[in-house]
Amino acid sequence: MVLTDTILMVRPLQFSYNEQTAETNAFQQKIDPKYSVEVSNKAMEEFDAFVHKLKSNHINVLVYDDTNEPIKPDAVFPNNWLSTHLDGKIVLYPMCHENRRPEKREDIVESLKNKFKVSAISDFSYFELNKQYIEGTGSVVLDRQNKLMYACLSPRTDLEALETVAEKLGYTPIPFHSVDENGQAIYHTNVMMSVGDEFVVICLESIKEVAEKAMLLGKFDDTAKQVIEISYAQMNQMAGNMLQLRNTKGQKIEVMSTQAFNSLSDFQMTQLLMHSKIIYSDLFTIEKYGGGSARCMIAEIFLQE
C-alpha cells in the first residue's frame, strides 16, 4: 500500500451545522443557535489537539487557516475537494452543495505548487454544471497500490463522474451501493469503509445487494486484504472513517477519533494492531455537527518536494 507521512488540514474558523449538506448527510445533528459560537470554538480546540497529536507521532501536517469570507461551515473537510498523487497530479473535485464550493482555494493550490513538484492540475469542477458530483476521497476510497477506486453511489457520488476521474487517474472504478438502517444512501464511501495496506475496514451489512457484496469480497481477496467488519452501530460512531499513514520514522499509523476507537471490540483492536499503531483524538463536536470524522479532515500529500 502506498502510504504518506505528509498531510494537509484546514483549521476551521466558522465551523457550524450545514443545512445544505444535511439533506444528504444523515450523520449531522442540528445546533441550537445559542450555542453556535461555543460549538465553533470547541471545533477549533478539537482540531488543534488533533494536529498536535499527529505531529507528536511524527506526521508532517501542513495547516492552512480557513478564510473569513465567504463563510464555509465545512472547511475542516478538505479531502472532499482535493487529492494529490505520486505522478505529481493535483485533482480538484465537483462538490454537491453550493456553499461548499468556495472551499476550493487557489491560494492552497499555489502553496502546494511552491512546496512540491506538480506535474498537472486536473479540475473536474465542470461536472457541477450538470449536477454530477464526486467529492474527493470522501466519495472514493483509493487502493493506490492496486489502482482501485471504491465508491458507493449516492447523490454526492455520480457514476459518470466516477468513471471519468478513474480513467484520468489510471484507476479501475469499483461502484456499489451502501445504505444506512433507514435505507438512505450512505453519503460518502469513507464513512463505511477504509482501505489499509493489508486490510480493509468495512460495514458489510450496509451493502444489501448480494452480488455487490460478493464482488467486493472478491476484490479484497484478490488484493490480499484482511477484512475487518464493523457494524452499523460502529459505523455511526465513525469507525469506518479512519486512515492509515506512515510517519517519518517509517512506522504505520492508524488514525481515528476517540469515539471510533471506543466503539471497537477487543478483537477488532487486535486485528488493527497487527498492521499499525493506533492514534485517536476527541473529535466529537466536529463529528456530531459536521457529520465527518478523522479521515474527512485529512487530505494526503503524495507530491514530491
Write a structural description.
- It is a single chain.
- The chain is of the alpha/beta class and 305 residues long.
- It has a single domain (6-300), classed as 5-stranded Propeller (L-arginine/glycine Amidinotransferase, Chain A), CATH 3.75.10.10.
- The chain is 28% helix and 21% strand.
- The protein is built from nine helices and 15 strands.
- It has helices at 36-56, 106-115, 136-139, 159-169, 210-222, 232-236, 258-263, 266-273, 284-290, and strands at residues 6-11, 60-65, 82-84, 89-92, 120-123, 141-143, 148-152, 172-176, 193-195, 199-202, 226-229, 243-246, 252-257, 277-281, 299-300.
- A three-stranded mixed sheet has the order 2-1-15, with helices on one face. Strands 3-4-5 form a three-stranded mixed sheet, with no helix packed on it.
- Helix 4 links the parallel strand 7 and strand 8 (172-176).
- The longest helix has 21 residues, at 36-56.
- The two termini are 20 Å apart.
Secondary structure layout:
Blueprint: E1 6-11, H1 36-56, E2 60-65, E3 82-84, E4 89-92, H2 106-115, E5 120-123, H3 136-139, E6 141-143, E7 148-152, H4 159-169, E8 172-176, E9 193-195, E10 199-202, H5 210-222, E11 226-229, H6 232-236, E12 243-246, E13 252-257, H7 258-263, H8 266-273, E14 277-281, H9 284-290, E15 299-300
Parallel strand pairs: 1-2, 4-5, 7-8, 10-11, 13-14
Antiparallel strand pairs: 1-15, 3-4, 6-7, 9-10, 12-13
Which labels suit this protein?
305 residues; alpha/beta; L-arginine/glycine Amidinotransferase, Chain A; three-stranded mixed beta sheet
